[in-house]
Amino acid sequence: MEQPIFTTKAHVFQIDPDTKKNWIPASKSAVSVSYYYDTTRNTYRIISVDGSKAIVNSTITPGMTFTKTSQKFGQWSDPRANTVYGLGFSSEQDLQKFIEKFKEVKEMTRQAVSQTPPIPPSTNQNSASQVNGNEESQSPSSSKHANSSQPRQFLHHRSSSLSAMQQEVYLDGTTDTSKQDVNLKERRNSFNTPNSPNNSSNNAAESQLKYENDRLKLALAQSSTNAKKWEVELQTLKNNNARLTAALQESTTNVEEWKKQLAAYKEESAKMKKKIVELEKRQSGSEQVAALQTELQQLTERLERVQLDNQDKQDEINQLSLRLSELSARETQSSTLQNRCKKLEEENDHLRLKVEDLQRQLSERNMSHDQESSELLRLEDQLGNKVTELYEIHEQIISLIRKESHS
User: On the CB side of 223, how many CA atoms lie within 13 Å of its CA?
Assistant: First the structure.
């Protein structure tokens, strides 16, 4: 299970695969770039998702290096993805924090590779001081999440770490007892960390839900791409299966014809042998006997060639049969993949229908809102007309009163 241990905002770029010089923007705006720790595989990854597309998915190795090229920009090379990633930050402090976290995670990865008991990096306020020796506080949300996840992360390493503490050997081949004591104290302090309050657990749950949402978006995009690949592969397997089946039928037909020819040659050879025996008994015409013997030898050679051809064709039939069985197995696997594709398509259709239903409800609400607005305008017009009529009646009454007063 993967857990986010550090998150920041940055603009993501990738190097141009053609020129290897220009940067191509991978995100339209600043997106979340996070470090994730996989407790099962004991690996670290840098992940960034823009909408439903994973624009960064880089597994950190001990050989990686993060290079600061300007005050707010840095880059690193990922040999597995065969690309170079670039990050543009809003401030130099954010870039420095990311670089320090990169160094810390790379050191943890190096210890895991050298079979040192792994210690997941903390994201509390003193995480930066573990790399450079100076204290630099991080955001409250990341420190709370680290405090809530430390007891779970260190629990399964405690027994092996304490038992191997006296035998820990570093890369230079020497043991350092003072560093062992410091590590032992840090591990003991990590187990004595008090439980975090409810708001930290809520933040951890929100981070986990956000990570699961990103993983689902990534899985949905990958499933659509894999479905298309599986359909193409299934069609190719069907075409190959049809061609091999036709070739096998043709080879079977040719073998039957060769068997008939072989039987005819054997029958003709037996007849020639009988003729030779009869001619030898009669002792008439040595030239005739020699001609028959020559013809018999030729027939024998033809028979041997036919037998060799028959053996070759039989081997070819066996190979075609093996390939046909392999294709049948692959076709069965492809049918399974096709069923998965159908299920994914059904899920996509269900989601599409749900979106259409929501859109329809939104349009209905908009229509009702428009109707209410038009009705309100109509009532306002009527009210205005009534006010105008009342004003006219008032003027008429005043004029009548004035006339009566003059009279």
Answer: 19
